[in-house]
Amino acid sequence: MQFLTYIGYIIKYLLVGLGIAALFIVFIPGRFSINSPAQQTTDTGQVAQQSAPFSGYADMLDKARPAVVSIQARSKLYPLNDPECQNSLRAIPSGTNACAFLNNGSGVFIDEQGHIVTNAHVLDKAESIIVELLSGHKFAARVIGLDKDSDLALLKVDYQPQHILPLGTEDKSRVGDIVFAIGTPYMAFEQTVTQGIISAKFFSRVSHYIQTDAALRSGNSGGALVNSQGELVGITALSSRDESGEKTYQNFAIAAADVQHVVNELLENGVVQRGWLGLNGDMTINFRSIVQEMNLPLPQQQMLASQIEQLPFGQGIVITAVNGNGPADKAGLQALDIITEVNGKPINSTADLMAAIWNVAPETEIQLEYYRAGQKNQTEVVLGYRD
């Protein structure tokens, strides 16, 4: 009898528990829904599929690598007694009294017309250029144009590539982005891939550069730097090494937007025409170097120091010399004027001033703001042609 009583209690509490569970399921269904691991329920009750687990970058690189080519550039033949043959050259063919430069590099198909971007130094003294695809097919290439200032060159082959890496007009890359360098290093491993991040971005001379820790070696010059989506963000250009030439310290690529500008100029004109301002300048924070360079007497030193103190954060470039009858001279600019803006953009360094005009075409009018004797002034300068 006592046993039956226990059984009754158990059944009673089981029924109560099931009833409470049923209430929870009815009134809070989202907390107790049973979906497959690859599904989740949205706020509207619809089932959303979860994304597949990350499996690496192989699929992206399968599309990007065929757009990168190997380049073999050979100079004309020189007699062995020619001074050129004293450099690192090979006799061609063996046993003859001739030598030639042999350069290896990389390039990138940027359109379906067969245009290839590479570094200008890869084509140094080149008389014949052979382009080899990842598939092993080879084509003779011709030079459309060279720009030694930016170290960029544009080639063309009679071939319509199926894989290209188009250039963009905007630089969307950021420090910290994952990037991949694709090229053919000196050990002849075609389309080798190295991974890194964007370490820094800066302007130097005529281009914006991307610094990366993705390893580069000789032969990578002119190759592709792509992001994790397989977009071309730069053309690999150079790296710094120790005296042995082996250990890499820093690697750099030219930003794709600047490469696009050079390509457009080479296609239209065969050369890159850059504007010329016709002056020399130094940062306002380099007061001592300006005084020494211009050999300023004490009154002018005091006047210049007073003007610099009025500028926010030492902003501006002090004009130290003006080319006679040049664009700046024609616009009325003088030594000791302090340039603070070009086309509305603040000028905080010499690099800022260079960046503001180097990729601007000659005969373009720019707006320039400057200070003279403590007074803010504005003028228009028509850029000239740089030799």
Provide the number of structural domains.
Answer: 3
Strand arrangement across the biggest beta sheet: 3-7-8-11-10-9
The CATH superfamily name of the largest domain is PDZ domain
C-alpha termini separation: 114 Å
As a whole number of angstroms, the C-alpha radius of gyration is 32 Å
Low-confidence segments, given as residue ranges, are none
Average pLDDT taken over every residue: 85
CATH topology of the largest domain: Pdz3 Domain
- The tally of strands reads 25
Overall morphology: flat
Q: Quick one: biggest sheet?
A: 6 strands, antiparallel, barrel
Helix content: 10-25%
Question: How would you describe this structure in keywords?
Answer:
single chain, 387 residues, alpha+beta, Thrombin, subunit H, Pdz3 Domain, six-stranded antiparallel beta barrel, 25 strands, 36% strand
Write up what this structure looks like.
With 387 residues, the chain is of the alpha+beta class. It has three domains: 66-157, Thrombin, subunit H; 177-269, Thrombin, subunit H; 276-385, Pdz3 Domain (Roll). The chain is 21% helix and 36% strand. The chain has a six-stranded antiparallel β-barrel. The chain has a six-stranded antiparallel barrel with strand order 12-13-14-17-16-15. A hairpin with a 2-residue loop joins strand 13 and strand 14 (207-212). The mean pLDDT is 85.
Produce the secondary structure layout.
Elements: H1 2-27, E1 39-41, E2 47-49, H2 58-64, E3 68-75, E4 78-79, E5 90-91, E6 98-100, E7 102-109, E8 115-118, E9 126-132, E10 138-147, E11 152-157, E12 178-183, E13 192-204, E14 207-212, E15 224-227, E16 232-241, E17 248-255, H3 256-269, E18 275-276, E19 279-283, H4 287-294, H5 298-310, E20 317-322, H6 327-330, E21 338-342, E22 345-346, H7 350-357, E23 365-372, E24 375-382, E25 384-385
Pfam family, one: PDZ_2
InterPro entries: Chloro_Bact_Ser_Proteases (IPR051201), PDZ (IPR001478), PDZ_sf (IPR036034), Peptidase_S1_PA (IPR009003), Peptidase_S1C (IPR001940)
Keywords: Hydrolase, Protease
